[in-house]
Each structure stands twice: as C-alpha cells, then as structure tokens.
# Entry
Amino acid sequence: MSTLLERHGNETRISALHLHGEGVPLDFSLKTVAQTAICALQIAHLVYPVRMDLAGITHDLEQIAKGY
# Structure
C-alpha cells in the first residue's frame, strides 16, 4: 500500500493506493472489516440503546447481522 499526504493551506488530504487486485486476501479483509463494524454497532447498542433506536439503526443492524 502506498500513502500520499497532501497539504493545501489548512486542509490535509491522505490518499491510499492499494497495489493488489481482487482475490481471496481482499475478500477476507473486507469481510473482517464488515464483521468488526457490526460488532462495534452491537456494542454501541448495548451502551446506548435509546440513541440507536431513535436513529433507526436497530432494525437494520439485526437484518445485517443475520447475514454474518
């Protein structure tokens, strides 16, 4: 992976270039990231159930979690 840091005045941009194509390692990485995000949202639901319900995330989270 190559990273490029650009600064323009008060703005900073970080660009990342991935030097690989599709395949099993990429698929595994994407699935792992998705599972980690689902876990983080489930923990947030335990800590802040009212906020998650008000945001309408609870139903969507349940549906997404069934796929994993």
